[in-house]
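C-alpha cells for chain A. Residues wanted.
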C-alpha cells in the first residue's frame, strides 16, 4: 500500500509546529535556574596538577593526611 504524499501546506504546517516546539524548549532552558552540580561549580581539572586553583590541586583527603589531621572516619 502506498502512502499518500503530504501537500506543501501540510509540510509547511509540520515545519512550523516543530519550530515552535523547539523555540518553547529553548525558552524553558533559558529561564531555568542555573546548574549547581559539582562539575558546573568546580574548576576544570580539579584535584590534578593542571588545576588553576592552587588549593584544589591536591584532594582534601590527602591534604589532611599530609598536615597530620585525623579524618573523622
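Reply:
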Amino acid at each position: 500500500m502506498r502512502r499518500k504524499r503530504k501537500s506543501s501546506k501540510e509540510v509547511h504546517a509540520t515545519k512550523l509546529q516543530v519550530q515552535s516546539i523547539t523555540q518553547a524548549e529553548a525558552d524553558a532552558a533559558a529561564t531555568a535556574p542555573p546548574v549547581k552540580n559539582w562539575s558546573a561549580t568546580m574548576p576544570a581539572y580539579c584535584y590534578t596538577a593542571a588545576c588553576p586553583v592552587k588549593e584544589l590541586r591536591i584532594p582534601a583527603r590527602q591534604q589532611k593526611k599530609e598536615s597530620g589531621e585525623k579524618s573523622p572516619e
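The longest helix spans residues 8-31. The helical segments are 8-31, 38-41, 60-67.
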